[in-house]
């Protein structure tokens, strides 16, 4: 096994553990993550409360484990949705051309005219706070990347000899797209999607931090960090542990994206 394969397997193993922990968060908690007890507020880490307690006496460890599913899987939903929607629109725009291409590119230009996160904040503000509306606002922020990338890839592929031969043989557009265009555009699109997961997790946490994403009492890393701001000096563990969980997950997804990109580059160079 090469060094690159070993690194990729290690990252996949660690991410697998994280995802399993997120799926089984209810079984890994040591206390009720939503139980409040003001008599036990702001207790430092201890055997009973491994990460301490917050200002309402809730177990920070249990809330970090419970919040993993909301923080990670909401980001996966966003990336999956924009990957499918943006890639489909970009492939159709690049291959069909004409008014379809012009319309889609004008729409993407309008969306990309605004700073990405500011656009997400504006949309979330109009839709109202809540994790569902945060997902919609982030989807509106990220889909243009995939549309433009897919379009540029198709424009390079559509004039290739094998595609022209298929067209001359009478192959239908749907057949050409599914058999020749899609398989050759998927690898870079998938790599972009993997790299975006970490960014989306941070963006989701940012919306929750601003009060536009997950709402109390839901356990979610962004809102936990936001609620802990007032206790940074007196109870730093309230912010440190959800921030550490957010950092580790984002780094792992970024490392996975980098490893996949390196493999694609190495394969393309052969």
Automatic annotation (TrEMBL):
This is ABC-type dipeptide/oligopeptide/nickel transport system, permease component. GO terms for biological process: transmembrane transport. It comes from Desulfosporosinus youngiae DSM 17734. The keyword Cytoplasm does not apply. One of its GO terms (cellular component) is plasma membrane. SUPFAM superfamilies: MetI-like. The lineage of its organism: Bacteria, Bacillati, Bacillota, Clostridia, Eubacteriales. Belongs to the binding-protein-dependent transport system permease family. InterPro entries: ABC_transport_permease (IPR053385), BP-dependent_transpt_permease (IPR050366), MetI-like (IPR000515), MetI-like_sf (IPR035906). Residues 72-257 form the ABC transmembrane type-1 domain. The keyword Repeat does not apply. It is a multi-pass membrane protein.
């Amino acid at each position: 096994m090469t060094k690159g394969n070993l690194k990729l397997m290690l990252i996949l193993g660690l991410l697998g553990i994280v995802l399993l922990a997120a799926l089984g968060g209810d079984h890994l908690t040591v206390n009720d993550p939503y139980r409040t007890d003001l008599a036990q507020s702001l207790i430092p880490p201890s055997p009973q409360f491994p990460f301490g307690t917050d200002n309402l006496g809730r177990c920070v460890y249990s809330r970090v484990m419970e919040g993993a599913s909301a923080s990670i899987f909401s980001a996966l939903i966003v990336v999956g949705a924009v990957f499918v929607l943006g890639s489909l629109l970009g492939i159709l725009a690049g291959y069909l051309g004409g008014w379809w291409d012009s319309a889609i590119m004008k729409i993407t230009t309008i969306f990309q005219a605004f700073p990405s996160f500011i656009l997400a904040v504006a949309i979330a503000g109009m839709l109202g706070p809540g994790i569902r509306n945060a997902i919609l606002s982030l989807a509106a922020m990220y889909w243009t990347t995939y549309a433009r990338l897919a379009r540029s890839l198709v424009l390079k592929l559509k004039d290739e000899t094998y595609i022209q031969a298929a067209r001359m043989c009478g192959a239908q557009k749907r057949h050409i797209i599914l058999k020749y265009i899609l398989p050759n555009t998927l690898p870079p699109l998938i790599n972009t999607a993997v790299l975006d997961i970490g960014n989306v997790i941070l963006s989701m946490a940012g919306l929750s931090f601003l009060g536009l994403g997950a709402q109390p009492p839901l356990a979610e890393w962004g809102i936990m960090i936001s609620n802990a701001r007032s206790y940074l000096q007196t109870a730093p563990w309230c912010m440190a542990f959800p921030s550490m969980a957010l950092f580790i997950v984002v780094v792992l997804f970024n490392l996975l994206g980098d490893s996949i990109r390196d493999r694609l580059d190495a394969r393309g160079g052969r």
